[in-house]
C-alpha cells in the first residue's frame, strides 16, 4: 500500500467553488484502478490549502497507470482554474 499526498493551494475566495467542482469530478478516484480510498482535507489555519490523500494498492497504479488516463487529464483540467500554485505531491509508505 502507498499513500499519495497532494498539497493543493487554491486562489483566495475560490474555496467553495473548488470543493463543489472537486466533488463533481471525484468519481475519477472512485473508479481508478488500484485506488483503495481517498479524502480531501481543508486547512484550518489556511482554508485555501487542501491535502488530497489517496491510498493506492502500489505506486505503479498512480505513476504508471492513473496519471496517463484521459480521466485524470479531464479531472486536472476541471480543477486547474482554481489553482493558486503548482500541486506538490509525494508518496509515502508505512514504517511502523
Molecular structure report:
Residues 2-92 form the ABM domain. Keywords: Monooxygenase, Oxidoreductase. Pfam families: ABM. This is Antibiotic biosynthesis monooxygenase. This protein is an alpha+beta fold and 96 residues long. It has one domain (2-92): 2-Layer Sandwich (Alpha-Beta Plaits), CATH 3.30.70. 33% of the residues lie in helices and 30% in strands. The protein has a 4-stranded antiparallel beta sheet. A hairpin with a 6-residue loop joins β2 (35-42) and β3.
Mean pLDDT: 96
Radius of gyration: 13 Å
What's the overall geometry?
Answer: globular
Largest sheet: 4 strands, antiparallel
H/E topology pattern: EHHEEHHE
Number of domains: 1
Distance between the termini: 13 Å
Largest beta sheet: strand ordering: 2-3-1-4
- The total count of helices amounts to 4
What is the highest CATH level, the class? Alpha Beta
Structural class: alpha+beta
The name of the CATH architecture is: 2-Layer Sandwich
Total number of strands: 4
Helix content: 25-40%
Task: Give the DSSP E fraction (strand runs of 2 or more residues).
Answer: 25-35%
Q: Report the uncertain regions.
A: none
CATH topology: Alpha-Beta Plaits
GO molecular function: monooxygenase activity
Domain ABM: 2-92
Keywords: Monooxygenase, Oxidoreductase
Pfam family, one: ABM
Provide the fold topology:
Elements: E1 2-9, H1 15-25, H2 27-30, E2 35-42, E3 49-56, H3 59-65, H4 70-79, E4 88-92
Antiparallel strand pairs: 1-3, 1-4, 2-3
Task: Please name the defining characteristics of this protein.
Alpha-Beta Plaits; alpha+beta; Dimeric_a/b-barrel; 96 residues; four-stranded antiparallel β-sheet
